Amino acid sequence: MFKKRDNIKEVEEGKYLEPKFDENGLIPVITSDFKTGDILMHGYMNDEALKKTIETKEAHYWSRSRKSIWHKGQISGFVQLVKEIRIDDDQDSIWISVDIGNGASCHVGYRSCFYRSVPLGKIDNLEKVKIKFKEKKKFFDPETVYKDEPNPTKL
Amino acid sequence: MFKKRDNIKEVEEGKYLEPKFDENGLIPVITSDFKTGDILMHGYMNDEALKKTIETKEAHYWSRSRKSIWHKGQISGFVQLVKEIRIDDDQDSIWISVDIGNGASCHVGYRSCFYRSVPLGKIDNLEKVKIKFKEKKKFFDPETVYKDEPNPTKL
Question: Cβ–Cβ of A51/B153 closer than 8 Å?
């Protein structure tokens, strides 16, 4: 679909979009809040999701759990309006900056998926590294919003 | 090494670090500049790189091209001092916020790897989607800094 990658110089410093999709046909996507700069989530797109995101200006991902195109916000209403799309040097990852208004991004109910931090420093026991909650309160109740939808988190 | 994942509720809302490494033993990592909030790069860590990053407070990645632990800045001098590490809801991606001082992050010579943006809107020809440079000038000369190191970009 997109331009064929046949020259490293063109991939790195050229003017054409030549995204690299992995062996599963996916490219990783970083999503940040354009107002706060906070990272909201880390997802994946296939070629169709990337095309839809560029054209509709609303974030579309590939859901690895549902194995289908995922128009973010379709169920929750928390649509992501795309303000900017960036691509990295070797064109194997994407950064989108989005407007979620007064919404949230995380299926657990927090505004950002990255609601916990990992303390730095010497680790005594790798099996007991404690993490700290940085968002203290859920933004919405996932059981009300998602009802009987299966949880995308897998072990 | 890290705590075993045996309960989805604990992964999502528990207090322990239970990172999920993929079939190659890797977890994706978003790296942002703690001063500007800009995304600098997208990389991967294995369990050892994550442990080293937590303990040394300097970013360590897994280099997929060299197939070895990669202490960022070892060659270029552009070490990343880690200010915060966050983990996402299902603990399968990491966000680190780093201080690169007056340095850069991208092997092509730009400050951020995401130096090009993808214009939004209707696509007429998928093979000719033009991208725009957002950083106008290289921050350093990669040929001087990396000398004979092989280019990590692959087709």
Answer: no
When CB atoms are compared, the residue of B4, B15, B88 closest to A130 is B15
- Per DSSP, which regions of B38-151 are E strands? 39-45, 60-63, 68-71, 81-87, 94-99, 116-117, 132-133
pLDDT digits (tens, 9 = 90+) for B36-77: 999 999 999 999 999 999 999 999 999 998 999 999 999 889
CB A70 within 8 A of CB A79: no
B22 touches chain A (CB under 8 A): no
pLDDT at B147: 87
What is the spatial distance between Cα A90 and Cα A72, in angstroms, rounded to a whole number? 26
Residue A53 is inside which H or E element, if any? helix A47-56
Q: What are phi and psi of A32, to 5 degrees?
A: -120, 155
pLDDT tens column, A118-130: 999 999 999 999 9
The tokens describing B53, both together, are 């990053």
| Secondary structure (3-state) at B148 | coil
**Which residue in A68, A154, A67, A69 sits closest to A107, CA to CA?**
A154
- Which of A107, A117, A153 faces B86 most closely, judged by CB atoms? A117
